[in-house]
Automatic annotation (TrEMBL):
This is Metallothionein. InterPro entries: Metalthion_dom_sf, Metalthion_fam14_prok. GO terms for molecular function: metal ion binding. The keyword Ligase does not apply. Signal peptide: none annotated. It holds the Pfam family Metallothio_Pro. Keywords: Metal-binding, Metal-thiolate cluster. Transmembrane segments: none annotated. It comes from the Bacteria. It comes from Pseudomonas fluorescens. Gene3D superfamilies: 2.30.170.10.
Length: 51
């Protein structure tokens, strides 16, 4: 299986074994799945997709 990338538009993280699935899209963490609605940081250390 090919490694997939998070569907968050600014995120370049790869999906782990248990991605968060919302509305048919796959995200690396809950913050990305909720589109950083309250400014939450990505769970991947060093990722700046919330900014």
């Amino acid at each position: 299986m090919t490694e997939r990338q998070c569907d968050c538009p600014k995120c370049s993280c790869k999906l782990g074994e248990h991605p968060i699935v919302r509305h048919g899209k796959h995200y690396c963490c809950e913050a990305c799945a909720k589109h950083h609605e309250h400014g939450e940081e990505c769970a991947s250390q060093g990722c700046k997709c919330a900014h």
